[in-house]
Design a protein that fits this description.
13 helices, two-stranded parallel ribbon, disordered C terminus, alpha/beta, 38% helix, single chain, Rossmann fold, 354 residues, nine-stranded mixed beta sheet, 17% strand
């Protein structure tokens, strides 16, 4: 499968958390057949309303008719209601699938701080249920790609802690389910994803402000949903067992980002203070991980697994220190150039947050 340009051709694919921001863009890419047309794409999530509207959008219908649900199983795009916390429903959804994108997660930092056990159940328990289902049953799954976050690197909040362990659960899955390749994709702030800062800023600007900034020093990595999907697809195509793919993406101060979005509108910025569990700067790779990091086949960083059974040590690391959003910040002019080619996509993605 490695390096196969039409990696999804004729494949049966499962996307857990497929009604989320990344999940919807990923499903749209899969259905377009850019990297090969799958035999089927199944969205597995617990939100029936989002599934309903996503189904209608792909069927190009404005309202449901009686046959919409009935015809679900006959479509290339299919929907299953379930929860990754429920082993039995996840097992049923995973049967006969060849590629699994594991995107289901609790990802809002403050929510995870106030409900840490719920984050553990979804982000860690869900990953364990998927590995267990594949390891204990002859499901025929070829590849699982776990969707991670920069907050998993040197985690200081519950969301990051649970996603850090989730990464390790998937890496260890290569030892339990030896016929399946488990890899991960870790990336930073996605401009248009649910709960991220750009949709918040746009909403605040649309209602006349103010735009809220937690601290003037705050920086974040920036990439679009399409950028994130590019890396996820590259990881499926090229990553070796146990590797975590990480993008090489720019970063910016949140004050500069807010200023660009505000433009010449008479809207002020207000400093509100750091939220529970929030970092001032994000890190995509720590200095400890840098010794295990090389360049992947498609230009992304490839973090090799710590477990010696899964590969040899990296002889020439791609990095000598950590990879932080505080480094190599874009100037306001560079940020303007970066966003001018992407802001239309960001605005267009806002329908995902409805």
């Amino acid at each position: 499968m490695l390096h196969e340009p039409r990696v999804f051709e004729g494949k049966r694919i499962l996307v857990t958390g497929g009604t989320g921001s990344l999940g919807q863009v990923l499903v749209r890419r899969l259905m377009a057949g850019t990297d090969g047309l799958p035999e089927s794409v199944t969205v597995f999530s617990r939100d029936e309303a989002k599934q309903h509207y996503m189904r209608l959008a792909f069927m190009q219908k404005r309202a449901a008719t009686d046959e919409v649900i009935f015809e679900n199983s006959r479509q290339r795009l299919r929907f299953i209601i379930g929860d990754v916390r429920d082993y039995s429903s996840l097992l049923r959804a995973t049967r006969d699938k060849e590629i699994v994108f594991a995107a289901a997660a609790l990802k809002q930092v403050p929510s995870c701080e106030y409900f840490p056990w719920e984050a553990v159940r979804t982000n860690i328990g869900g990953a364990e249920n998927l590995v267990r289902a594949i390891a204990q049953n002859d499901l025929g799954v070829e590849t699982v790609i776990g969707i991670s976050t920069d907050k998993a690197c040197k985690p200081v909040n519950v969301m990051g802690m649970t996603k850090a362990i989730q990464e390790r659960v998937y890496v260890e899955g290569n030892l339990r389910a030896t016929q399946t390749r488990f890899v991960c994709a870790r990336y930073g702030n996605v401009l248009a994803s649910r709960g991220s800062v750009v949709p918040l800023f746009l909403e605040q600007i649309a209602t006349g402000g103010p735009v809220t900034i937690t601290t003037p020093e705050m920086t974040r990595f920036l990439l679009t949903l399409e950028d994130a999907v590019d890396m996820v697809v590259a990881a499926v195509r090229s990553a070796h067992r146990g590797e975590t793919y990480i993008p090489r993406c720019p970063s910016a101060r949140m004050t500069d980002l807010a200023a660009y979005l505000i433009g010449d509108k008479p809207i002020e910025m207000v400093i509100t203070g750091i939220r529970p569990g929030e970092k001032i700067h994000e890190i995509l790779l720590s200095e400890e991980e840098a010794t295990r990091t090389t360049f992947g086949a498609e230009g992304y960083y490839a973090l090799r697994p710590m477990l010696p059974e899964l590969g040899d040590p990296v002889s020439e690391p791609a990095l000598v220190g950590d990879y932080s959003s505080a480094d190599a910040l874009m100037t306001p002019k560079e940020l303007t150039t970066f966003l001018e080619g992407r802001i239309a996509e960001v605005v267009g993605q806002r329908y995902l947050e409805a």
